Amino acid sequence: MVQLSQALAAVLLASSAVAHPGGNINHEIIRRQLHLDHPERRAVSNCKRELTESGWVREQAVRRHAKLQELRAAAGFSHLEARDPATMESEFSEAAACTLDPESTEGPYWVSGELIRSDVLTGEKGAITHLDINVIDVSNCKPVTDAYVELWGANATGVYTGVAAKGNGDGSKSAIATNALRGLQPSGPNGTAQFITVIPGHYVGRTNHLHTIIHHGAKLLPNNTISGGTISHVGQFYIEQNFLGQVEATSPYNTNKQAQTKNANDMLFSMAKQGGDDPVMKITLIGSKIEDGLYATIDVGVNPKAKQRPEAVNVWTEKGGVPIANSPWAGYPDTCKYCGGRPPTKRDAEAEAEAEMEMLE
Ligand SMILES: *[C@@H]1O[C@H](CO)[C@@H](O)[C@H](O)[C@H]1NC(C)=O
Ligand SMILES: *[C@@H]1O[C@H](CO)[C@@H](O)[C@H](O)[C@H]1NC(C)=O
Ligand SMILES: *[C@@H]1O[C@H](CO)[C@@H](O)[C@H](O)[C@H]1NC(C)=O
């Protein structure tokens, strides 16, 4: 039986009080812990030497710098001084690098069938963010060139599109009709997926985060969606707390009435920071203030052979979001099968029983 530490038991005990609206994140914490304890776990930092020697780290640092210059020029700001490539190499994997794993839940509001598109704004307002995600296969230390990276997040006032649910921010009935802030991008020759989105707003029980899913072997359909394939990873990206505070002070974030949870009080955030991972995006101002736009980067490690089975609550169609019959998230947070978060696998269930025993001791 998996031996869980007293520290983990304490985390679980503390987190039963702090949950998703109507939910409970203990299952998710256990999944993350099991991933951290897995003997074959590899982090992005395990690939630092190989990716540096192949020249990829330097190329990507130069490419990202050029992209930021381009954004600055387009916004009417002067050029940045080029950074020393050796410094960029030495910093690789120390910040904004994480290994996505089965630990992080898709949450109750994943909508499948979204469109392949880079700009996912669809009229949403907020801190416009040009996000650059590099995907690395941590099993062979090569960029993943043939994946689809899916991204979604809540809008600036903490509401997810594509769903109508009581627990979804203001409980909006109209959000189901839009696919704003959701989309997919192919990873391409350098393993890079680029999006234009906004810094997600906060909602009850969680700190601000973006969701991601990595698809492999999916087929591109004529209507710019994908079908089939496998999903190796389900993860979340975060924002540094001081900077987040500045974003939250801008409009329209400052009109969000939902209670706010800071990174430090979000158990999933704290656990995502463990094991040499840093799921906090590296964010640079394009101009002189947040309203001029942001450039964000993150490197994510995946094992393309891993198979996760996240469950969508709705599917995006020409007619808007359509509920998936029998989705275990349907009815969240009141009547769903997954109301307490995704149930752990059989192996996780053993660990959970163990943790509960330790808590009773
Ligand atoms: C891949 O990276 C190289 C080196 O930075 C760059 O020249 C090339 O344009 C990139 N390709 C894509 C599709 O981004
Ligand atoms: C977020 O979405 C909800 C539901 O569609 C909407 O009422 C709200 O105005 C949106 N927030 C912003 C900042 O546009
Ligand atoms: C795209 O095509 C698939 C297959 O025909 C269909 O099931 C899906 O609803 C379509 N999606 C959209 C957004 O039109």
Automatic annotation (TrEMBL):
Signal peptide: 1-19
Annotated keywords: Dioxygenase, Oxidoreductase, Signal
Molecular functions (GO terms): iron ion binding; oxidoreductase activity, acting on single donors with incorporation of molecular oxygen, incorporation of two atoms of oxygen
Ranges where the record places region Disordered: 342-361
Biased composition (Acidic residues): 351-361
Cited PANTHER family: INTRADIOL RING-CLEAVAGE DIOXYGENASES DOMAIN-CONTAINING PROTEIN-RELATED (PTHR34315:SF1), PTHR34315
Protein's recorded name: Aromatic compound dioxygenase
Native organism taxonomy: Eukaryota, Fungi, Dikarya, Ascomycota, Pezizomycotina
